Amino acid sequence: MRLRTSRQKLYIILIKNIIYGGIYITKESSLFNPIFLALISLAIPGVGYLLLGYEKKGLYFLFSYAFLWLGYKLLENDFLIVSFLFLIIVIIISIYAAYDTYQLAENN
């Protein structure tokens, strides 16, 4: 497992507080379970990368997911075909992020 910088530790504490509702879990290894990271990346792509320390990749997936989800919601009623394509892309990004996060967590 790679050594973490202070910024990465801050991200970990922030995500733990969001996930566990402010309860700080001291056993760090439970947060880096590959299955848990894959599931959280399936729900919100990019968070698993941030927890593993891949900041650029995590922020890229997080912002692209937010942009596509916003586009889907804005076009949901007016342009059904375009909004459906946005939804399909969001699902593909979520599945890829979950798979890739799982692979990276297994290799660390």
Automatic annotation (TrEMBL):
Transmembrane segments: 9-25, 31-52, 59-75, 81-99
UniProt name for this protein: Uncharacterized protein
Organism: Methanobacterium lacus (strain AL-21)
The organism's place on the tree of life at top rank: Archaea
Keywords, comma-separated and alphabetical: Membrane, Transmembrane, Transmembrane helix
